[in-house]
Amino acid sequence: MNRAPAELDAIDHIEGQWRRERPDLDPRPIQVVGRISRLHWALEERLGRVFADYDLTRGEFDVLATLRRHGAPFELSAGDLRGSTMVTSGAVTKRVDRLERAGLVRRRAADDDARGRLIQLTDRGLTLIDTAMTEHLRNEQRLVAGLTENERDTLIALMRKLNQTLPG
Q: For residues 106 and 14, is the Cβ–Cβ distance under 8 A?
């Protein structure tokens, strides 16, 4: 940890405190995990502002974006939607219920299975997610603007590797 004092941040101080208090431990993982955690919360707050502008939660935005990115006719079964959003069936149901009440999605019976239900974007939902997605990506661009393209590529590769190597 040979950095100039101006470069030190709260994570560096936390690591230093643990080094002082528990010299028998290696607190270096705090440098990675602590930063990822802090970035997560900072990004969630900044991303949430855009979702709120469209009266959406992150989860509702995720449902709309998932339907949109699957292409026309912009519909998925509840199971496929759950798999693409990585949440429980109860969470998907709650999100879809709210989006349906708002007129952004509709449920319909599957053509090949009367018991199966498909969730589909309405025209209003399609317009909303296209507009919101444009602003969301502008926002994300602003959030990573402090990194060069090479730094972004390096960070992407490192995060991908970390994600793939996380122990179960």
A: no
Instruction: Provide the β-strand partners of residue 76.
Output: 119
pTM of the model: 0.85
The string of pLDDT tens digits covering residues 1-52 is 555 556 889 999 999 999 999 999 999 999 999 999 999 999 999 999 999 9
Bond into 73 cis (ω within 30): yes
For residues 142 and 135, give the distance between their C-alpha atoms in angstroms, rounded to a whole number: 11
Task: Give the distance from CA 123 to its chain's centroid.
Answer: 24
For every residue of 111-146, DSSP letters joined together read TTEEEEEEEEE-HHHHHHHHHHHHHHHHHHHHHTTT
Strands 75-77 and 113-121: antiparallel
Which candidate, 115, 98, 119, places its Cα nearest to that of 107? 119
**Average per-residue pLDDT in the chain?**
92
Q: Which helix (H) or strand (E) holds 107?
A: strand 105-110
Tell me the C-alpha to C-alpha distance, in Å, between residue 3 and each of 7, 16, 132: 6, 12, 41
